[in-house]
Amino acid sequence: MSANGSSEPTCRSEVRPSNNTCSQQELSVTASVISMTVGVLSNSLALFILVKSYNRIRIKSKASFLLFASSLVVTDLLGHLIIGSLVLFVYGSHKKWETFDPHRIVCSIFGACMVFFGLSPLFLGSAMAVERCIGVTRPIFHSTALASHHMRRLLGLTWLLAALVAALPMLLWRPYKVQSSRSWCFFHMEEPKDWLDVLLPLLFSMLGLLALLLSIVCNTLTSCVLLQARLRRKHHCRGTSYHIEMICQLLAIMLVSCVCWGPLLIHVVMMSIRAKGEPASFSLLVVVRMATWNQILDPWVYILLRKAVLRKIFMLIHSCWGPNFHQLHRWQRSVLRSSVETSNSGAGPPDCRCLGKLPLPDTELKCIT
After folding, report:
1. Which of 132, 145, 235, 278 falls 20 to 30 Å from 99 in CA-CA distance?
2. What are the transmembrane regions (predicted)?
3. Residue 278 burial (CB count, 10 A)
């Protein structure tokens, strides 16, 4: 999805100013190759981790989550491969669209891929957030009503909706347009001809913002419920450990999507609302490049925010705060011992109740006689 900001289709070495153009094009091609390579390798590693976890897991709710997560990584991987190949093809053809694409077939495919691989991660992220919210807040309904085939149908519907939005410009005879940088295709947003030219990009941005808003609401609700259950000790630590792992991953995905896609979606809304104005190709190119980082950062959420990695981070923090932590435990044991001695010095039968869940030695967990 990386594109060059220069509007020159070719490079000429005879004239001095064209050397700057050539260097800019070489820099853009290098950036596209690096982005494509890093994205493919990151998504491949994340997909290997998720498939391995999916084959090993026996918990139904986590299996549904891993199905959506694996689909999200596969979508990002295909997006890097297809869009990156199109970008390299355009640069290899010196951006002469009139020569290699006289019927605008490549431009239509390019624009449709930009929309599809842009909306699909947002839709999948919101579907994952809704699925986790139902699984945490309504576990009985989730286990009985939401079977595995329902999850697969929901997954297919998210891809179908993204594909429908991507195909609308061709279906309504509003083909995608080569942007001013001549390195990518998108909606016709500069000086729209009629209301359809305004509606199509506005529909794209509003659906993306709606998916982000749904993810924020569901993830916030799920996090609050899990935190409340954790404080009240209604669930065992083993039962909520995988919930906490998934919530950490969902919150990270939501944060990455908001930071990467938020500027582009808002910028498209602003350009769609105004009927006329100065061309904003450079600012649009900048926010598009920001959006490409979403497909690069998404797989690292699953690579880094795993339970094993989180446990190592917790142990590292515990080792850094170890002296203060052990001092606090010694103070708690001394206070508890003094309170027990005070209660035993008074009249009344001995108390054999459990002394809480403090990590006390075995000698201190015996009943006081």
Report:
1. 278
2. 27-51, 63-91, 103-124, 154-173, 198-227, 247-270
3. 7
Tokens representing 173 are: 């005879």
Question: Is the Cα dihedral 120, 121, 126, 131 positive or negative?
Answer: positive
Domains of the chain with bracketed CATH? 23-305 (1.20.1070.10)
- Positive or negative torsion for Cα 5, 187, 164, 167: negative
pLDDT tens-digit readout, 46-97: 888 888 776 666 555 567 878 888 899 999 999 999 998 999 999 888 889 9
**25, 6 contact by CB (below 8 A):** yes
State residue 247's pLDDT score: 77
Distance CA 163, CA 182 (A): 24
CB-based burial of residue 268 (10 Å sphere; 0-12 exposed, 13-18 middle, 19+ buried)?
Answer: buried
DSSP-derived letter for residue 124 is: H
pLDDT band at 122 (very low <50, low <70, confident <90, very high): very high
Pair of tokens at residue 40: 């493919």
Residue 336 exposure: Cα atoms within 13 Å on the Cβ side:
17
Q: How far apart are CA 120 and CA 163, in angstroms?
A: 8
Q: Write down the pLDDT at residue 57.
A: 62
- Per-residue pLDDT of 33-46, as tens digits, reads 888 888 889 888 88
Judge whether 73 and 302 are in contact, CB under 8 Å: yes
Task: Give me the sign of the Cα torsion angle 199, 205, 208, 212.
Answer: negative
Provide the CB-side half-sphere exposure for 53 (13 A, CA).
25
Q: Sort 261 into a burial class: Cβ within 10 Å, 0-12 / 13-18 / 19+.
A: buried
Residues 369, 363: Cα–Cα separation, whole Å? 13
Interval 211-226 mean pLDDT: 90
Structure tokens, 107: 């431009």
What's the CA gap between 206 and 265, in Å, rounded? 8
